[in-house]
Amino acid sequence: MEQLFNIDLKKILTNSNKELNERKKNLNLFLESGLPNKKDEDWKFTDLNAIIKKNFKTIVNNQEFTFHKRIEIIKDFEHNHIILINGSYKSSDFKFEEKEKVQIKSIKSPKVNSDYSSNNLYCLNRALTVGGFNLEIQKNYKCKKPIIIYNHFTSNLDNKIINNSNKIKLHQNSECTLIEYNIDEGCKFIKNTFEFVEIENGSILKSIILQKTKSNGYFYKSISGSQEYNSSYENFILSSGLRFNKIDLEIDLNKENSNCFVLSGLCLGKTEHQEIRTRINHLAPNCKSYQKIKNVLEGDSKGVYQGKIFVKDIAQKTDAYQLSKALILDDQAEFNAKPELEIYADDVKCSHGSTSGSIDEDAIHYLMTRGIELSVAKKLLINGFLSEIFENFSEKKIKNFLEKSMEDQIDGI
């Protein structure tokens, strides 16, 4: 593993010897165990060790870069924004908000502690993290406009690894829509991100992950969150175009009437590999979770969904739904699904399911008999298959923008 990772901690500016020693300890822990592989149940369909070794000879952590480009701001709807360059916080503009109600700070170094996760990528992140942000929405404040996180990656990232961590906290009775908008310049790099989300009583967070263009990046993101009484967390994952991507999402529904939604629509082109793994922990009565994962797979792409619903014995009146669907366009494409239920309460409504199949030839024939070309007919059916995830999205201008982005991704497969 040392031969693959050429890591130099001297390149990272540290605040104290204690922090440096903590980074060294985490790096050694990572190097001892290495990257996750298929022996780990959580990685049985995505052997990260084999994937990285196949595509990288040496991985370095050089943080030096220059960035003189102007970020192209989306004009489809009014919004606030946060700009990250290579995972590090650069600037923000909350011009539509009351400034004291939306607070952001840069995260430069890891919190020094001895909490070593069983996820070995966490040790790697704690060793090398150099950027990220801490965002807080204050009590009783509802953001007037969404916040777009422009996540830009520079042109000198070939064979480099980026590690960052973010913290998002919505205080009681607050509301926010976040859109993570990834933009890169075609380099082959690794991004390892850990994000921590707290949603207090009565608060609502909508989170959208969107890729602007095709990418040769290898992305891993772990999202862990907690929800309190009468809170809501909605996740829309639209990360089509990434060469590799895995999102781990684990949410604790700690108090009654909390709701969590995970909706994803992905178009995977040739050689692309994406996995979504979720665990929703129902730890209190009268909570709801809803998950719908949809993949369209072309060429030799690979899609994976592992989803678990855990219901504690006191979590009566749980309502949990989980469904994954795949539309497979080529014989070489592969979709793996592993839905799980672990239920200890007896008064619940829980269901899960998974289906996969090829495109409907009768529907294609029907459209073609009405003068629609074959390629256009296929794209219409694919769009209809994926766009269902937006059916309950309330903000019309954002919805139109997301639907247009999905159409562009469909055109690219």
The residue-averaged pLDDT reads: 92
Q: In what order do the strands lie side by side in the largest sheet?
A: 4-3-7-9-11-13-15-17-19-21
Give the uncertain stretches in residue-range form.
Answer: none
Biggest sheet: strands, sense, closure?
10 strands, mixed
User: What structural class do helix, strand and pairing data support?
Assistant: alpha/beta
β-strand number: 21
- Give the CA-CA distance, first to last residue: 35 Å
Percent of residues in helical segments?
10-25%
Radius of gyration from CA coordinates: 21 Å
In sequence order, what are the helices and strands, one letter per element?
A: EHHEEEEHEEEEEEEEEEEEEEEEHHH
Distinct helical segment count: 6
- Give the overall shape: globular
Report the oligomer: single chain
Strand content: 35-45%
Secondary-structure blueprint:
Blueprint lengths: L4 E2 L10 H17 L14 H8 L3 E2 L19 E6 L2 E6 L8 E5 L13 H9 L4 E5 L9 E6 L8 E10 L4 E9 L6 E10 L4 E8 L3 E13 L4 E7 L3 E12 L5 E10 L4 E10 L5 E10 L4 E10 L7 E10 L5 E10 L5 E9 L3 H8 L5 H13 L9 H16 L2
Helix pairs in contact: 1-3, 4-5, 5-6
Task: Please tell me about this protein's structure.
The chain is an alpha/beta fold. The protein is 17% helix and 41% strand. Strands 4-3-7-9-11-13-15-17-19-21 form a 10-stranded mixed beta sheet, covered by helices on one side. Strands 5-6-8-10-12-14-16-18-20 form a 9-stranded mixed beta sheet, with helices on one face. A hairpin with a 2-residue loop joins strand 3 (80-85) and strand 4. It is globular, with a radius of gyration of 21 Å. The two termini are 35 Å apart. The model has no long low-confidence stretch (mean pLDDT 92).
